[in-house]
Amino acid sequence: MPTETTDAQKEEASSPPSPRDTNDFDENVNPLDLVEPENALPAITYAELPKIAQDAAASAGWTKLMPVQSKAIPYLLAGRDLMVQSRTGSGKTGAFLLPILHRINLKKRACQALILVPTRELALQVSKEAAILGGATGVSSVAVYGGVGYGPQISALRDGAQLVIGTPGRILDHLLQRTLRLDNLRQLVFDEADRMLSMGFYPDMVQVQSYLPSGPIQGSMFSATFPAHVLRLAQQFLTQPDFLSLSRDRVHVAEAEHVLYADPGMKKDRALVRLIEMENPAAALVFCNTRRMVDYVTIVLQRFGYDADRISSDLSQSERERVLRRVREGKLRLLVATDVAARGIDIPELSHVIQYEPPEDLESYIHRAGRTARAGASGVAISLTASFDERMMMERIAKRYSIPLEERKLPTDEEVASIVSERVTSLLEAKLRSRDNLQSERMRRFRPLVKDWMESDEGQTLLAMLVDDFYQDLLHAPPALPAEEASTKPAARPARKSQSQGGQRRRRSRPSRSRNRRE
Q1: Structural contact between residues 177 and 153, judged by C-beta atoms closer than 8 angstroms
Q2: Whether 287 contacts 370, CB under 8 Å
Q3: N or C terminus: fewer CB in 10 A for the chain?
Q4: 203-227 pLDDT tens trace
């Protein structure tokens, strides 16, 4: 299915920045914008790049490095696992591609570097930049993603693609079919890790992990935000990772991101639905100012298929306990409440606070936004305004508390359709992989019917209804996220799967590894 490209993605996916758009890291950058590891490495300049990386950059017309490249590349060249907080369009693709190109053995025709991305669109974008940068080095690459035929992807993998960029689901498909092997893998990159989790890719990522070789693999993770579940993902897939942030809005790992959607140009309830579709929060608290509005918003969310419930003063004690029990067990994704009704309710790892209505007093905003970004994680505080008075209230709050309030445009219908289509495709492909031979054989009897449906408007409507029902059912299930214990256990990659004599795959256990260079 074709997808739309956002302006921010087009910015990063277009040909690499021209010299006038880039600059070596400026040591005078505001220190509040920079978070570095304790054992920080000095920034690198274009002239200090290894020859292969410099040749690659030169072939793309680069003469200087962007800040995230200048700061991140030294850690990756040193072989250290790294978490990088970086926005789309900041130059992060070049930050991980240049070190990869430097470390690939051109004589070995096998996958040596794997870049996991959330969408086929991003896979194509990264692949395009890899082709431009890798053209001068001779590194071969391929984009691997779902929704298209396997033939060209299999051909490129069999020809010995050394750099593979793909979505977790399709990568797993190739691993299961043995058209992709990771025996020679030495570098692993997670690009936009927060979006990968919001797309529902965590189970696939865990399965891909089981195919990693037992030898040393350098891992890095790039993400716009690091909420608790992304932090756990980093500990699960990386080894003692360093953390680096060049966030321009002072949003660091332990702080909330404050976002304003002003005058959405549509009813607020539809704007709220669009934002939830795009953000796909693991757990969100939606604030309203009145009990009546709480009831209305809850009904809207439930009618759209979301797993939503409310807390208000008119609930019976048994109903209130039922809702709170679901909250404590992490089984409720969206809770709608007033400030008074939400007092005393603690939702662990709240990824989003959404203010359907701005608070009636300035201090209440701090109490609301403070519900997220706890315990060393980040979070998002979103505010919706639909009138001049509401917008002025948000501006007063931002000025009073020196909050870096970022105003964004509401996602378009096309952008929402694109991200939902990607999500549904990945989930359906995962469901298909779980089918046994008998189920697959049974399913094939419907292929002629589906082909007939595709040729008529009525048939396409029937298919859309089935896909919508499938998606709505999923909205009532908590998203699959890294387990709680992953954040406290030492990071260790599971052993790869091997082929037993009986044709079944089994797991070999091995001790967790450590890196002597860090001890």
Answers
A1: no
A2: no
A3: C
A4: 999 999 999 998 889 999 998 777 7
